[in-house]
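Ticket #4471: structure export looks truncated?
Reporter: QA, pipeline team
Priority: medium

Steps to reproduce: submit the single chain below to the structure queue and open the exported record.
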Amino acid sequence: MNETNKTATFRSVKGKVVIVTGASRGIGKAVAEVYGANGMKVVCAARSVEQGQAVADAICGNGGEAVFVQTDCSDAKQMKKLVDTAVSQYGRLDGMVNNAGIGQGGTPLHEYKMEDYENIFDLNSKGVFAGMKYAAEAILRSHSQGGFLINVASIAGIMPQRGQALYTATKFGVVGMTKAAALDYAHYNITVNAICPGYTKTSIFGDAPEQAMAFFAKDCPSGRMGEPEECAYLALFLASDMARYITGAAIPVDGALSAGGKNVSQWRHPEILE
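Actual output as written to the record:
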């Protein structure tokens, strides 16, 4: 270990320019806030202008630096524009967190519609690819000395989930792209990692009843659901100089759920078996 690494701290992220997608709520919001609190220049991207701008304003109000760019992350052209805007605003790009995504599930594969496939792959797969592609180009052009790409996947990208065929497929794809890209960019000192949340208190659970939320907590070996900030702290570490030799990893933040567990699946049309 060289002397630089021996003295590395979270202060090493200060001044880095980073894009965070899905920054209006949940894990994306927590990542943006933690980054801003640690001196990073944060470009917050989301579809909701009101919520996304509120996150950027809060970061600035707390002494940080942030801007908001309205972005539909399922649209590759908008993703390119997002990266171009970040570079235009700050003159460089050091990192990107591809967090925007949607969930689907609770039914067997045959009950999904083709449009379900298109909708989830457009955002969870194509959107992540576009973010990685355009961000990698910008980071290389910026000659960043601490470049990083972080993809928010899921434990569904590590262990298949019953009733989650499409969601699982997209998250396995994200983990695969993460590992392949890590090989592409390791020589150029750009780290590429995936964060794999387990049951986490975010909007992906929608209006799940209290009974369902209690089940998720009980199903987890830790006996509780995770907080978005617990993923954000890992994202901070991965953006720092302390994590320069960590690349190509898919890291669970799940209270040991991916060590072995199960989830809920309910058939909508059991009469097909009659």
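Status: closed, not a bug. The export was complete when the record was re-opened. Leaving a note from the reviewer for reference: The first strand starts at residue 17 and ends at 21.
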